Amino acid sequence: MALSPSLRTSITPLELELVASEQLVEIVPLVSMERTAFISGAYGPLRPPTKCKVPLWMASNLKLKKKCHIVPPAWLNVEFLQERLLRETTDPSFSEMPFRFAEVAKILLDVASDDLQNPDRIRTLLKDIREARQAKSREGLSKLDHNELMLPNLCAMEINEIRPFFVRGMNVLTQLTREGTQADAMDMS
Question: I need a surface site. Which of 31, 134, 154, 189 has the fewest CB within 10 A?
């Protein structure tokens, strides 16, 4: 979602991808490597063809160097996404998705689409899910009141997208509520 500079107070999508790249994913290494220590932790040893869990940033790096295959998460397949799309379009509430599904899916589709079954269909389904969830977000924001906003099961990217509008909207609602309360108090005097 393109935002004007005045609304860009949130984290950028690239920054969200960077945060998501710390998530562990399973890989099938194609090279041997001893256990290696990084700031975020120690990973390995890598022994082909034994699966190993590593951060997404490391898996992406190894994949780009053709030193591993990335095992896609259980939710990143056509069947699961079709079922979630059906829920998104028929149920008024948000379906449960991994918190960083958009970022992880984008990274994997960019770097390891050859490790996914039917990546073009997955890309299309993710786009459709995103559009359905954005419509629900807009509807939820239109029902905003000054007390609370209930939008359970939002993912990180969606929260980041609505944050600027939500903060500004809540500020306006709070100001209007205060002015209304002050006007009522003056009427009673």
Answer: 189
DSSP codes of every residue in the chain = ----GGG--S--HHHHHHHHTTSEEEEEESS-B--EEETTEEE--B-TTS-EEEEHHHHHHHHHTTSEEEEPPTT-SHHHHHHHHHHHHH-SSPPP--TTHHHHHHHHHHH-GGGSSSHHHHHHHHHHHHHHHHHHHHHHHHT--SS----TT--HHHHHHHHHHHHHHHHHHHHHHHHHHHHHHHHH-
User: What is the CA 50 to chain-centroid distance, rounded?
Assistant: 29
Alpha-carbon gap, residue 19 to 14, rounded angstroms = 9
Separation CA 59–CA 67 (nearest Å): 9
Most confident of the ranges 10-19, 111-120, 158-167:
111-120
Q: Which two tokens stand for residue 126?
A: 């993710």
Q: pLDDT-based confidence at 31, cuts 50/70/90?
A: very high
Q: Taking a C-beta distance cutoff of 8 angstroms, is the pair 91, 133 a contact?
A: no
How confident is the model over 53-75, as pLDDT tens digits? 999 999 999 999 999 999 999 99
pTM above 0.70, yes or no: yes
Cα R_g (the chain), whole angstroms = 22
Residue 105 half-sphere exposure, CB side, CA atoms within 13 Å? Answer: 26
Cα distance between residue 125 and residue 80, in whole Å: 10
